[in-house]
TrEMBL record:
Keywords: Cell inner membrane, Cell membrane, Membrane, Transmembrane, Transmembrane helix, Transport. InterPro entries: DctM, TRAP_DctM-Dct_fused. GO terms for cellular component: plasma membrane. The chain crosses the membrane at residues 31-50, 62-79, 100-120, 132-148, 155-178, 198-217, 248-275, 319-340, 370-388, 394-420, 432-451, 471-493, 500-516, 528-548, 555-575, 581-606, 618-638, 644-670. It comes from Microvirga lupini. Pfam families: DctM. The keyword Cell inner membrane applies. This is TRAP transporter 4TM/12TM fusion protein. It is a multi-pass membrane protein. It comes from the Bacteria. Part of the tripartite ATP-independent periplasmic (TRAP) transport system. It is found in: Cell inner membrane. Residues 141-406, 410-639 form the TRAP C4-dicarboxylate transport system permease DctM subunit domain.
Amino acid sequence: MTTANADMIIEGRSLEEKFDPEMRFRPLPTATAWLVAGLLLALSFFHYYTAGFGLLREATHRGIHMAFVLGLIFLVFSASKRGYDRVAPSNWWRPGSISLIDWALAIAAAVASLYVPWIFNELAFRVGNPSTTDVVMGTILIVVLLEATRRSVGWPLPVISIGVMLYAYFGPSMPGILQHPGASWSNIVNHLYLTSQGIYGIALGVVATYVFHYVLFGVLATRVGLGKLFIDLATVVAGRYAGGPAKVSIFGSALFGMISGSSIANTVTVGSLTIPAMIRVGYQRHFAAAVESAASTGGQITPPIMGAAAFLMVEFLNLSYQTIILAAIVPACMHFFGVFMQVHLEAKKSGLKGLPAEELPKAAKVLREGWQTIMPLAALLIVLFSGFTPYLAAFWGITACLVVGASRVPVITLGFLAAIAAGIATGMLTQLVFVGPVLAFVLALLVYTYLRSEAGKAVVFDLIDAFVIGAKYAIGVGAAAATVGIIVGIVTLTGVGFKISFIVTSFAAQLAQGFVDLVPAGLANLNAMTLFFTLLMTAIVCILLGCGVPTTANYIIMVTVAAPALGLLGVQPLVAHFFVFYYGVLADITPPVALAAYAGASMAGADPFRTGNTAFRLGLGKVLVPFVFVYGPAMLLVTPEFTWPGFLFVTGGAIVGIMFLSAAFAGYGLTVMRAWERWLIGLAALPIIAPDPETTLIGLAMAAPVVVSQVLKGRAAAVPKPA
């Protein structure tokens, strides 16, 4: 690992811990830190091994995962903010600088998590008729889970979970349509703890089976230099053009987002290089921070990782992973295109230049020095699109990261390491008994060889540290997913999801009727307006919920509660899932809780709220595109409505509309725009984006005067004035 790459990782990690509650770890003394690191390493190796050599029984796999996750949270997250300031003193009530209460909670969490796998063979006879021990263990798990989630991701998700459990218990006292027979505490614990529809449900299963592996892959890929390669390539491609560093930020964030799947990680890693460069060429500080944070939110919608959403969609929709990521490609491109257009027009308006030639890396040198770092992503995609499971693809991606990382020490050649990887593949495919021990011996010999040199030691410990950090980054997501299982479980227990869907659609229908009555007859369709208002309310709730709830949890909650409402109005499940997911991600750049924007503002020394507002404006593509693919599903490529003419019409309209809206926001097209031009072309963009021939023509007609005016002014400005 190069010094520059190491510095970027260290700086990025400190900023992530500052702004992301899931990565704010308490300091520990050396002995305790080694113990915790060993447990984190064991968790990573457990997932790495099972991904390649076979998952355990479902309940056992999820139970072991949750036992590690919850137990570790009480060791690495302090109960209060004061615990992050310094290493606490070690004494009899705080052994290893961790209080006895935290040790007890960690043990209780592990025992309660492993209890269900322990009684699995008897579970068929216990569900619906839990014993006293079952209720006690389930209660313990619910309590420690809520506390673990509070520590790792904050208060909102536990508060929502407690609220829905109270709703289940006090059902007979609820008003109107929300009333239900109610459930005893024993029945609530039975449903949440002993069935697969609660805590041990799909959300936890997806994190334990897929998400953990891809978080680990992202950390390792960054550690071996793939992130730096992406940033360097983006600089080569876009650095020389007007506003070059901002365009580097967009391309770099798009590429880095493929492996990070995290808005904040994207912001601090890419932004550590691009934000200072943007400020240096003339962008205002808040705008530079907003560009990086807006582009970085694309990390969660960019295939192949997409945070955790892609894997959850696989389980919820029963579609292949390849189908999900194909559907995600065009909407993700629309997001980055929207940011790019505003950045480009802002640069033209302000006369900003690109980076000087001496600051631009040489393409040949970048590829020569970093070509091998692309191997992990290539291995992952090849295995994935060969029809194998996503976790097996992650296994080979991680294995390739280890090969690339180890090859940086000249004691062993890259070819020999590749041969070892091929041997592992042969052993997995042929299931020969002797292959495992032989490869274990070879790998042990390899590690021994590396440890005999200083450079080798650095590589070994760096890769081990990546496994530890990868596990640290994933435990907060694991707790959030398990807690979301409480919410999903209560929804299935009480049937409240369909009641909320009915309330939402009924209210939307009333709003639609009022709107139809106001406009001239024939200009508005009642069903279409009902769908529009339902989408609008769903989008607002997604953004508001996302202000306090992690994206993955937000997505699961909204799919459980809001997606049925969209289904009642004829929206396809895949389209509905993408809609709520996109608006959930927007919370990362939507004030007042715009974590990615605030991280960028800190790096730029800018006002956080102003940065968040600007970032939201720059993310207009992500705001508008979900409405486009609801009304024009052909944009998602894999829907039954897909045809090439339909796809080109829908996507072309979105591109033109985003260009016009970007010009309106920037106040610049071919030249500086007057106020009437900005308003008119901004209003014209909306009907152009709508995937309907009539509205598109209306929008183009509205935009025509502005386009003509801009062309004429542009030509006049290009004519040289007489001396």
